[in-house]
Amino acid sequence: MTTTVPGVSEDTNLDAACTTVAAEVPRTDGKASLLLAFNGVVLAGLTGAANTGLPAVTTVVGAATVLTLGAAAVLLLLVVRPRLQGTDRASFPYWASLDDDTIRTSMRADARPARIRGLSGIALRKHRQLKRAVDLSLAALALLLIAAASALI
């Protein structure tokens, strides 16, 4: 059940929602960039260790680690990949397809609900991919520990 808060207007809530949702997109991009850098460093280190005469078990587990980190990197790249569909009627890709008069007409309507919906969808997709990439990165680190342990045996 929704309750109405006295003194809080719909405009205030729409503005707050726009601000909140708009901040989520760059947050996920920043996190994805940091994880991409981390995964890149680990992949570079594994590449350097690949031809050093490691035991077969270590090599197999190391290969699984590289594949897992590669999958995480793909997800992270998808997080930062621009989505340029302009179907939400409140985004620059949509506006780019309009003529001047249609843009003026569209500016007379309150586009905040469409903007909130569109940005929420983008942010949700990015967060889901980021979560999967973190899970894969953690799995790769576990595999790396197993590879390291098998090299010591």
TrEMBL record:
Question: What Pfam family does this protein match (any one)?
Answer: PycTM
Where are the bilayer-spanning segments? 34-54, 60-80, 133-152
Output the InterPro entries linked to this UniProt entry: PycTM_dom
Q: One GO biological process from the UniProt record?
A: defense response to virus
- Tell me where in this chain the Pycsar effector protein domain is found: 15-151
Q: Which UniProt keywords apply?
A: Antiviral defense, Cell membrane, Membrane, Nucleotide-binding, Transmembrane, Transmembrane helix
Q: What is its main location?
A: membrane
- List locations, semicolon-separated: Cell membrane
Listed GO cellular component terms? plasma membrane
What domain of life is recorded for the organism?
A: Bacteria
**Which Gene Ontology molecular-function terms are recorded?**
nucleotide binding
Q: Can you say what this protein is called?
A: Integral membrane plasmid transfer protein
Q: What organism is listed for this UniProt entry?
A: Streptomyces griseorubiginosus
